[in-house]
Each structure stands twice: as structure tokens, then as C-alpha cells.
Amino acid sequence: MMQKLSITEACQYLKKLLSMNYSLACVGTYLRSDDAVCLELCDRLQSMGAHPNIVKCEFGLENCIDVLLLHKFDGVLICDAVISSSLEPGSIVKLGLEDIDENILILSSHSIPLTHAVNILSEVAGVKNIELLGIVACDLSIGMQLSEATRNTIDKLCECLKG
Asked: How many Å apart are CA 48 and CA 7, to the nearest integer?
């Protein structure tokens, strides 16, 4: 079930999962403005050096399944930009696979459907827990700049995760 999270709630959720044998798999592309929001999150978290379980999946989850298989994670939190007609840009949402419908759309240019990549993780890799975290995008035009709304969300999230 979709749940909107505050910055504090999202920060606590990320801290909890990253303290366990979970990977944060960040999906997106740097070429479509806000579609890079979760890649930027991973870049910044990796530069902080405190979270070794961060995996960047540029252009789709399927592009990093091999890394996720290698590490034998108990769980994977897939973090991606989303489109929502009912939420403000920069909002953070916790999702289940059942939430991906006409109101929430995962953006990344997956070459295989997200549900297939998730099935590979669970059935082939034996990943027990797969969760989704989305950041609502504002600007999807060709470009390499995040919108103010998504940049502010990442700034606040990273500040919280430092502590």
C-alpha cells in the first residue's frame, strides 16, 4: 500500500534498512532531469562513505541484478523517480508493487518490466524482501539538472542521513 513519508520518516526508514543486510538500489538516468533524483541520492550517500550497500542501477534495475546477486542481500529497497498526479513534486512515497498503476508510474527506462526484474531478484537470487521508495518527479525533459523540488528533497534527506 502506498504511504507518503515525511523527510524524517524516510530518513528513519533508510537508516533502518541500511543498518540491516539490505541494499539501496537506485534507478534512473542522468539524461532526463528529475529521473536522476535517486542516482543523485546514491552518489551523495556513497560520497559520505557510510553506506556500503548502495548500488546504482543506471537505466534500469536489470542493469545491476548481477551486483545484487553477488552480495546475497536479505532485502533490496528499489529507489526510483515516480510520476504521480496526486502528489507534489519532491514528495517521498513508500510503495508496494500493487501500487504501480495509473496514479503512480515508475519512470526509469527499463528494458524489461520492473515486475520481471523483481521476480529475478526473488526467485533466482533468493532476495526475501523487496521494497520500493519513490521520489515524485517534476521535470522529465532532456537535461541534467534536477528541479528545485527534487533537489530540496535530496538535500534534506542527505542532511538527515548524516546524523
From this structure: 18
Average pLDDT on 99-127 reads: 65
pLDDT band at 103; cut points 50, 70, 90 = very low
**Structural domains in the chain (count):** 1
Instruction: Note whether 29 and 109 are within 8 A (CB).
Output: yes
CATH of the domain at 17: 3.40.50.1450
- From CA 137, how far away is CA 148, in angstroms rounded? 10
Task: Indicate the pTM of the whole model.
Answer: 0.89
Q: Compute the residue count for the chain.
A: 163
List b or e across 114-146, with b for residues whose CB sees 16 or more CB atoms inside 10 angstroms: beebbebbeeebebeebbbbbbbbbbeeeeeeb
Domain assignment of residue 21, given as a range:
3-162
